[in-house]
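Supplementary notes for students who missed Thursday's class. We covered one full example, reproduced here. Read the sequence, then the structure, then the short commentary at the end.
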Amino acid sequence: MPNPEISHREVHKLLTTGFTDEYIRRNHLSRVARSIPYDPTNPICDYDKTWWEAQPNKWSNRVPTRVVSLLNRMRPSHFNETFIAPLRARADELTDALHQYPVMFVNGHAKGYDLQAGLPTVAATAALAREAKSGNYQANLERMVRLSHGFATRALAPIEIGFSNHQPQWTFLRIIQLAGNPHWSFPINKRINESGIPASFRHEHNAKMKADALQIVAAGSQDKEGLQTLWTMSPAGTPDVLGVDEHEGKVITKSVEQATIDFVSRMGVGLLPVYTVLGKGILQAEFGSIIPPNEVTQSTLASKMADLAEYRRVNGQPNVYYEGELTA
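Structure (token representation):
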């Protein structure tokens, strides 16, 4: 429903000039990427829409793997070893859980790395497709992509990628649709708060995004094998920050907002923590135990985020702390 305070054209201009263009510059993508201009006929410019359906095809293995590997500064071979191989080893366990309830990967958000929450779902779709008991790999991969959902910042949607005017242009949205169903939200941070996009517009959009996601979970999947949906999230909703004053020298992972805790609780998903260390000369990841929905409490997300910070401390990043640990 249109917001009387601001038009979609104005939202698009503020979002792309203030965030999308800066993202492209910060990641040194200016030679191959640009923000798309506003076009009321382009669904990407529809700010009443919060999610897009997956569109898997023959590129759903190669392209998402290369993109998440590039944005997280690893070679595809390292991605295979660190993420896909461990999930292939646990494919029966994850499949059994998905026959009972939806599962959500719980991720950190290391500063300077992007789409970190995409690492486990891209890996899981490939792993489960490889280990499926019947059917061919491509058909099973496309099945799993249609079951996969992820949350990302709306500022990424208007990116177009192409090396020249003579080559096909890809939107970032279309690339993500190769890997799953993207759900877009406006993050809660200082830059967004000062962007000029009214708080009422952002809150309405995010509320609709949550309502849409809850409806998808409640509807269940139509998967022919009876698998439920697979989700991924970075619950902090914002990258790590540097500590100040008495916490100077620390890297702090932000506390999980109560609204996020309530949202995940209402989804009724099982949780699968992803303990990841990304940094210069460091690449390490482990998958925790799956926590069934009936064992997820109000403290579970915060507890797992604190565990992730501890995992990073003992594996090469000794100054990382969860914000809740420092304020308790």
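Commentary. The chain has twelve helices and twelve strands. The mean pLDDT is 91. If anything here is unclear, bring it to office hours.
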